[in-house]
Specification:
By secondary structure, this protein is α/β, with parallel strands linked by helices. It contains 14 helices and twelve strands.
Amino acid sequence: MKILVRGTNWIGDAVMSIPAMRELRRVFPDARITLHTRSWAEGLFTDASFIDEIVPFEKSVWTIRDVYHNSRFLRPDGYDLVVVFPNSFESAVTSLLSAIPRRIGYNRDLRGLLLTDPIAVPEWKGRRHEVYYYLNLVAEVERRVLGRSTISLAVADTTVELSEERKIAARHRLAKAGADPEKKTVAMGVGSTNSMAKRWPAERYAQLKDMLGSRLGANVVLLGSAKEREVSELVARSGLGAINFAGKTDLGQAAALLGVVDLFICNDMGLAHVADAVGTHTITIFGPTNSATTRPFSDRSEILRKDVECSPCMLRDCPIDHRCMTRLTVEEVFDAAEFHLMEERYDVVEATSDLS
């Protein structure tokens, strides 16, 4: 069987869909599974064991002509089944025009007639973590195609594999940029591309960066997209300075860098999910968004937030005083970072003592 998976449109969602793709591989062990995804996601899935092939595409805004050409490109591959993760109308139209006989996705955005198996959105959507939304869809695929139900929604693994070669390249890049390999390295994500309300104030990140350097002697590295370069530069050039890679890496390179640092501190952003997925302890600052449904999924993830009466509001710009963010102090974030870094250092000492 040849299975096409239409990938998600955002970095965080791409990571949150990984458990579902792992389960798809488990229930169809002999199938050829192809991920059809935005080109930025290639680096995230380069070493993934649960897919056989990546077919990237560039467009984020679609015209009828784009959909037609994309579907013509896919049609000769003769897929038997497509699992449509996004809720968009375009993804369902593309699947239909690609002449894929079995098309399974959620029945949203008036696309029920375009899918052979339109799946009802679960009533718990908005209350449970998003990983279960994608897992539930694959559970429906197994039930409808194979007539069985073996997928447990209680188990989810968001791990992203990184080859040793990629880690070595990332360490070399850090050293070349001036990071001392003998010191702890803390990465920070100080932006967010789709919401100003999700940003903890840049001046506080700048203060935090200086405290990490002066009190803990840590290297500080800034990561983010080109759209986050300006705020990252504002943080990087103040005080003690920092290595600023924002806008200078693709997602695959950012994932590798996150895989070799000791800690990642960030806003609610896609890279929070990536850092968690590659095995790095992550401190994510939440304010206007719902951490219960969209936080990085594993126990490596630590959430900092203030309980205020208007949060989560899900607004992209705060109409009042941004209290959900401004009430979180620099000292509170530093204390969380110091606790993790000191605890990790203590674990290393203990392990060394055991060997001696």
